[in-house]
Design a protein that fits this description.
The protein contains 8 helices and 14 strands. By secondary structure, it is of the alpha/beta class.
Length: 265
């Protein structure tokens, strides 16, 4: 397969907490790639850390259709963990590796506005708008934006408007990639890519193939929002990819056009 040119525009990278381990080089890759001309934008989750802190607070996590049910008490923990602990740890790691990073949540500067996705899920949002200007301002300062998936509730109910909502980080990554007209959207996961029925990595998926695999439950669970985000973010000439972020140099290999993981579109 012919290598693609190294992207010098904006690349949105979704980092899952389970990918940051002993052999992972994501942090150093991001810093080095930025110095080489990439404009990386990081979106992160933090599901495992949220669950750990909920346990410490005696709150039992509840999931419905793969999404965390977020009541008012859970929301406090979600916001504290995502916009606080996880976000600032990532910023610290990037700074410690020689980079410059600014951590924000989607609520800061009105980056993300959302409405209640499903009342049964509680304070879980569906993104209604993205304002890319605060992100572009951070990039213009030569810094890496690190974004936590917390949004402003833009409800028509004046009592609810201005409160906070928990939003799926995969969905946020796709929405931000689209708003920025990013050249690439890369998901760093804890699996090798999208797997077929025989558990083999599918190197490339078209829109139609992805829809068929989701319809037949070959693509299921947590992979669904990633695929949906990839499809949503695709622009003319853009690339979406799902790779195993636990592997040394995975992000750099992906951006250098080496065929790893699954390419969408």
């Amino acid at each position: 397969m012919t290598k693609e040119p190294f992207p010098h525009g904006t690349t949105v990278v979704k980092i899952g907490g389970s990918t940051l381990g002993e052999h992972d080089t994501t942090i150093t890759d991001l810093v080095e790639l930025q110095k080489e001309g990439l404009n990386p934008v990081v979106v992160h989750g933090g599901g495992k850390v949220i669950t750990d802190w909920m346990a410490k607070q005696g709150v039992r996590p509840v999931f419905k259709d793969g999404l965390r049910v977020t009541d008012s008490e859970s929301l406090k923990i979600v916001v504290a963990v995502l916009a606080g602990l996880v976000n600032k740890e990532l910023v610290g790691s990037l700074e410690g590796a020689g980079g410059r990073a600014i951590g924000v949540s989607g609520a800061d500067g009105g980056i993300l506005k959302a409405t209640i996705k499903n009342p049964d899920l509680g304070y879980v949002g569906s993104v209604s708008s993205v304002d890319p200007r605060p992100i572009l301002a951070i990039l213009a300062e030569g810094c890496i934006p690190v974004i936590a998936p917390v949004a402003i509730n833009w409800s028509e109910d004046p009592e609810q408007r201005g409160t906070l909502l928990n939003v799926n980080a995969d969905t946020v990554a796709g929405e931000i990639a689209m708003a920025l007209n990013a050249e690439r959207l890369v998901f760093l996961t804890d699996v090798e890519g999208v797997l077929d029925r025989s558990k083999r990595v599918i190197p490339r998926l078209t829109r139609r193939q992805a829809a068929q695999l989701m319809g037949s439950n070959v693509i299921a669970g947590g992979m669904i929002p990633k695929i949906e985000a990839c499809l949503h973010a695709l622009q003319d000439g853009s690339v979406s990819q799902i790779i195993d972020g636990r592997n040394t140099g995975a992000l750099r290999q992906s951006l250098n056009g080496i065929p790893i993981g699954t390419r969408i579109g």
